[in-house]
Amino acid sequence: MLEIADLECRRGDRRLFSGLNLTLEPGTLLHVRGRNGSGKTTLLRTLCGLFTPDAGEVRWRGESIRALAEDYRRELLYFGHLNGIKSDLTGIENLSIAAQLDGDPVGIDDVWQALARIGLRGFEDLPTRMLSQGQKKRVALARLILSRARLWVLDEPFTALDVEAVALLQGLIAEHVAGGGLAVLTTHQEVPLTSGQVARLDLGD
Amino acid sequence: MWAVFWCVLKRDLLLAMRRRTDALTTLFFFIIVVSLFPLGVGTERQVLQILGPGVVWVAALLASMLALERLFAADYEDGTLEQMLLTAQPLSLLVLAKVGAHWLLTGLPLVLIAPLVGMQYHLTDTQIGIMMLSLALGTPILSLIGAIGAALTLGLRGGGILLSLLILPLYIPVLVYGAGAVEVSRIALTDTEPYLMLLGAFLLAALTLAPLASAAALKISLE
């Protein structure tokens, strides 16, 4: 379903990786590993189409993601180093707007439920700048609950989360993968990555 | 598709409401710059009448320049811009919505305050009317062209200065025809027509082309 064909990425003069080939079927989780600076984030950004590879391409359902453009992005959810939430807006507003931009507006009740599930009951209508780092991250992660995307690309999703939230996130990922979704993630934490097919990719060797 | 446009427009207006001071700085900057000239060159009626249109337009240019830096910067820093790039929406439409909100917050107030600053320069009622009209046509062009520069310089060190160097030369036609329209309206009102029509043509061209260019520039800046 997701195909990486002969991918090569450079940052400046330095070659991060080259000749990368990989095919992921529905219901797979890909764990990308490697030390700092080995190109994990670059690979993930390339998968999203935010970074143009120097050679090779990424295909989705057999077609290049460059050609698919908006059709691909509809099925994609990216969670990067930045939370992507506005600190002056409340959790509710942030999530409603994000859902609307993603092209599937959700009901306000769903948003309240998603925030409750992610453990932010009582913080829903506070501007997110009043929340702690971990709570902000939870607001951003609530998008995973609301999203209908088939492919999740998660860059270090476990940092700044407490034990309870880590377990919750693991559950969400497992649920997504079990439902035939795809997930690509990086993490330095030793998080048991549960059921289903887990593929591993080591960068920078 | 327009639902997304309104969504982004409302979002940016809402954000501005939560941070009112940001929106007001542009307006005050404009008023202060315009008010400095009579203090500097004296209060002679004839001199002020000649200087007026040019000064107001140059001040509008600088004020709009000042506000541009923030157009994408905040969204860039917290990652929401990145998320916008990844939505299943045409990026140029989102950019157009952002520029629209930006103009409502920084351009429209200048148009509305124009009669007040016009009085400082002893402009006639006709001239003030034409000034408002030319500003209403011209300031959206400034925001639209400026958005390209703001997108290109996003995340660069010293981006502010670079932005002015990139964008101010492109503002020259708007300045020439905007200030020109007010100037000739002192002599004959009918003479203003070509000036305003040209401004209108610029606006249409900017509306169709600038969002596409800004979207392309954003993609480059975020790589």
TrEMBL record, chain A:
Signal sequence bounds: none
Record-level Gene Ontology MF annotations: ATP binding; ATP hydrolysis activity; transmembrane transporter activity
Ranges of residues in domain ABC transporter: 2-201
An example Gene Ontology biological process: cytochrome complex assembly
Pfam families (alphabetical): ABC_tran (PF00005)
InterPro entries in UniProt: AAA+_ATPase (IPR003593), ABC_transporter-like_ATP-bd (IPR003439), ABC_transporter-like_CS (IPR017871), ABC_transptr_haem_export_CcmA (IPR005895), P-loop_NTPase (IPR027417)
Keywords: ATP-binding, Cytochrome c-type biogenesis, Membrane, Nucleotide-binding, Translocase, Transport
UniProt xrefs under PANTHER family: ABC TRANSPORTER I FAMILY MEMBER 1 (PTHR43499:SF1)
Listed name of the protein: Cytochrome c biogenesis heme-transporting ATPase CcmA
UniProtKB/TrEMBL annotation, chain B:
GO cellular component terms, A-Z: plasma membrane
Membrane-topology annotation of the record: Multi-pass membrane protein
Compartment(s) of residence: Cell inner membrane
Leader sequence residues: none
A GO biological-process term: cytochrome complex assembly
Taxonomic superkingdom: Bacteria
Keywords: Cell inner membrane, Cell membrane, Cytochrome c-type biogenesis, Membrane, Transmembrane, Transmembrane helix, Transport
GO molecular function term, any single one: heme transmembrane transporter activity
Chief subcellular location: membrane
Bilayer-spanning residue ranges: 21-41, 47-72, 93-116, 128-154, 161-182, 194-218
InterPro entries cross-referenced by the UniProt entry: Cyt_c_biogenesis_CcmB, Cyt_c_CcmB_bac
PANTHER family the record matches: CYTOCHROME C BIOGENESIS B-RELATED (PTHR30070:SF1), HEME EXPORTER PROTEIN B (PTHR30070)
Family: Belongs to the CcmB/CycW/HelB family.
Function: Required for the export of heme to the periplasm for the biogenesis of c-type cytochromes.
UniProt-recorded name of the protein: Heme exporter protein B
Organism for this UniProt entry: Allochromatium palmeri
Gene: ccmB
